[in-house]
Each structure stands twice: as C-alpha cells, then as structure tokens.
Amino acid sequence: MTLLCDIEPVVAQALNSLGSHMTKRMEDMYYFYAAKHIHDTLDAFIVLRAQHRLDGSRLLVRPALETMLKLRAVRAKPELLHRALVADNKEMDKWFSSVARRHDLPYTPISERTEWAAFRARFRVTVWS
Question: Which of 43, 89, 104, 108 is the least buried, fewest Cβ under 10 Å from its Cβ?
C-alpha cells in the first residue's frame, strides 16, 4: 500500500503533464486513455483500502489487470487496436443500454453512431495505408 500511495501522485502528475503534448495518433490516444483508466482504478483502490473496504477494493483489481493486458497487447501488435476498441464498445453497450432501458431512455449502440463510422474510416486510412 505504501508503494501504491507513493506512486499514485506521480502517475497523476505524468498524466496531467501530457495534456498539451498529446498527438492525434489513435494508438497514442488509446495508450493515454488506458493509462488514465488504470490510474483511476488505482486511486479508487487506495481510497477503498484506506477505509478498510477490502471487498470493494478487490473488485477493482481485475479491471485494472484487463486494461493493462489489452494495453500491452496493443503496444506489441498495434493492429489489435481495432479489436480492443470493438470489445470495449460492446462491453459499454451492454451496461449503458440496460441502464437506458431501465429508465426508458433511447440508446444508440456505439457501433451505430456517426462518430464510430468516422473513427473506422480514419482507422482504415491511418493503419492500413
């Protein structure tokens, strides 16, 4: 816990310092958002452990590890980026669509949105050319 508490502010400062230095490459953006997700999970883990809420803190370990594994896979093989994003979108659709249904709100799956179509077109141009 001491190591996690020591490293969290350093990671937060590193992520904050990237704000004006981010490129527009899709891989870089994925790395940034994956790192931010891991940091947010680490931060929540520290808070829960400090409050002696061990069961809740344990639930955060798996998402952080899954994100780290995907991040490493995409770094080793950038062509896996599309597959990782599709899997993430399906997972988000599963959760958000059920919430929308429960509250009688309209929900458009990510794969049917204009932003996703624009991303796929950009992805084809940047990765496959």
Answer: 104
